[in-house]
What we know:
The protein is mainly alpha-helical and about 230 residues long. It has helices spanning about 20-40, 60-65, 100-140, 150-170, 180-185, 190-205, 210-215; strands at about 1-5, 10-15, 70-75, 75-80, 85, 90-95. The strands form three sheets. Strands 1-2 form a two-stranded antiparallel ribbon. The protein has a two-stranded antiparallel sheet with strand order 3-4. A two-stranded antiparallel ribbon has the order 5-6. Strand 5 (about 85) and strand 6 (about 90-95) form a beta hairpin. Helix 3 packs across helix 4.
Amino acid sequence: MGSHLYADDTQLYDCCRLENTTTVRNRLASCITEIAQWCASRHLQLNADKTEVIWFGSKSSLAKLKAIDCSLPVGSEIVKPAPVVRDLGVLLDANLSMKQHISKVAATCYYQLQRLRQIRRCVGPEVTTQLVLALVTSRLDYCNSVLACLPQSTVEPLQRVQNAAARLIFNLGRNKHTTPCLIQLHWLPVRFRIVYKLCVLMHNIRASKSPCYLSDIVQPTTVTATRSGLRSS
């Protein structure tokens, strides 16, 4: 079992085969009970209302889980599995399709673009560019590495947001092509921004410039006996 500890949040996670679901559930329940006891001994209370549980897996595996009790006791409350949870601002669904997260990000960005469109004539293109970078592009880039290897059709809503942002800066119509605008702004398309983020993360890990929680989960192919002879090693 693993854990992530934040300022006011604790995250527990584990993995198992479908037949071992009950064992993992009991292990998580036992750990939560110990945390609740630790909190009580220090006059703290584990908030069941803010506790969420989710099981990740394929559609077929999740369908089989319906016949198993996957809820977890938190104090005197029973927390049932949720279809979607929020983790550091990222919406994670049970299938890890990331569609709900992308939909939420796109909706938030369109809202900001609509607000900026109302003042675009007053502030000019340069200030508009800075506002778009602060309010829209930053949201497109936030934790975008979790979108790696998703189908292009899934990521396409974010690309439409970027295109709309470029049209706003250059005051273009809805049917105008945005590729020249993206080149002039030096903006990578969304799917390449995701690849770029992963490359930066891996470079920092390789150069020992990343936090331990990242470097600890990455190992070079040279330490893998079955892959040590590959050119990539």
